[in-house]
Amino acid sequence: MTREPYPTARRDDVVDILHETPVPDPYRWLEDPDSPETKGWLLGQADLFAKERGPQRFKSRIAELLRSGSVGVPAWRGGRHFFSRRTPDQEHAVYYVAEPDGTERALVDPMAIDASGLTTLDAVQPDKEGRLLAYQISVGGDEESVLYVIDVATGARVEGPIDRCRYSPIAWLPGGEAFYYVRRLPSTEVPENESQFHRRVYLHRVGTSTEDDVMIFGQGLKMTNYYGVSVSRDGRWLQVSAHEGTAPRNDLWVADLTESPIDRPALRVVQEGVDAQTGLVFGRDGRLYVHTDREASRGRVCVSDPAAPGFDHWRDLIPEDPEAVLSDFAILDDLERPVMLVGWTRHAISEISVHDLATGERLGEVPTPGLGTIGGISERPEGGHEAWFGYTDNTTPPTIQRYDARTGETTLWAASPGAVEVPDVRTEQVVYRSKDGTEVRMLVISPADAAEGPRPTILYGYGGFGLSMSPGYSASILTWVEAGGVYAIANLRGGGEEGEEWHRAGMLANKQNVFDDFHAAAEHLIATGVTTPEQLGISGGSNGGLLVGAALTQRPELYAAVVCSAPLLDMIRYEKFGLGATWNVEYGSADDPEQFGWLLGYSPYHHVRESVAYPATLFTVFQSDTRVHPLHAWKTCAALQHASTSDRPVLLRNEAEVGHGARSVSRSVDLSADTLTFLARHTGL
Fold first, then answer.
1. Phi and psi dihedrals of 308, rounded to 5?
2. Active site residue 542
């Protein structure tokens, strides 16, 4: 097959000497998106992709399966509840309020705000009485959230816009007259290349100028810190947490707001300088509930007195489980025997257990619809005997289930609103051994009536930041399997499937374990006859893009096709762009000699070798991505196009006006169709 010639990309003799080691960077010039040369190269890549793209084979079926819509877990405030829902024809989910009589009203509709579909709803938080709603929106994928507050009864705006609120929690005080929130310092007050950082916690009084906001916390701490803030339902207890970037540990403080003013809370240390993650829930019964992985990698729940929140006073209520990871909990107390519902993931599959609230004794389990993923157990803030939780699996669009602790029954409370015919598939969880003998699990989804014999297969993974790959409804996966392929999802080290130790076994100096786990997953699929190297495609995004970038440079012979989305690939310079400086706690820093050695050891951009027959590769990147700069894909794409001796193409799909996260449904359909079409062409589906 004769492929189109690649756009010309000059190779410069740029070499950095870092820790006495030469580090070539021939495509450094592609780091400047505004240069005429970069723009010209991108136009050439766009033309090449358009010629190679071909018809989108799967587009109509992906769109059809996405017509399932979606529904979110309710948040209760007084008699009202708040929830999100996307109907079959909507581009974005809409946020609603339901009155006690069941009447529903749309509160925030992104398409009503912006008919182009480029505006996304990033976060919502009703106040404690359900009378006001704080919400955050951003435009064009930049995730630079702007905060507004509206009156729930009338929909009238009462506050905003307040900018620089990216990733801000909203902690309402009772009465809705004030809230704590997190905001970045103005760009005029920080160095130009640090404008994405330098967050602070503020108190804002509704109806006043943000110029009058009082800084509560964060002065003098690390510029890459993220802050959490919450206020107990009764308004007495303020909780502030600090994470250094994405580090799997936090410092934590509390203040009794009855003993100090809300604008000068007397914060006391709960934990500081401790290598663990901890969060607090102030119970209606006066007890302090502590969710922590301190001395418990898989998590536990302890209890204490709010007046004595320190570690020395914690005692186990729900101890660590040796096989399951404790994810969340809810308290149901309108019962003769109050209970705690505890959410767990056991090898990436969710379950909920029921425990005596006083003693922690296990009383039973909450019935769930199947082997899938449970999201967010919700209770009424004032107490009750009911709980709600989200549920999905590989063939079930999102649903909301209601559990009644008086009867012990779980019933469907709300389903995704679209009726779709889902293909019949078979899901199996398999166990394989990685290079060092570690057992790793993988979900393998195949046609229900599949005959024996190898099939075109997509292997997907992530393996980072403690994020778990759990079962969920996916139009792309179902479309691929319905067409006769197999889709496999590996639960690699670096994720959270087996707790914090599992995460740490795949971060910093241990990152190669993640790549070894992925190669071993591919080898298992081949050895067991599921697929062959000529039929195996791999896919990953963000940290998963780093994963497949390392896979294609370390083991190019093992894979026929690669889709690498919004990837980190230049691991020597990643900290200099986007939010990279917040991730050195996960990967390490090239400024440190030892950590530089880890990074250079696997950095995909630096391991592209000349005269190698690389797999067919498609990079998909997003021009407004403020987390991972597209330069990673641009530079590596140029390097692969120069180096590969294969007749299989290396392509770039560069999309404008979208970013790293949420996007409209139609944009999602286009992206999924392009990636599946590419993978099908090069794996023989």
1. -135, 70
2. yes
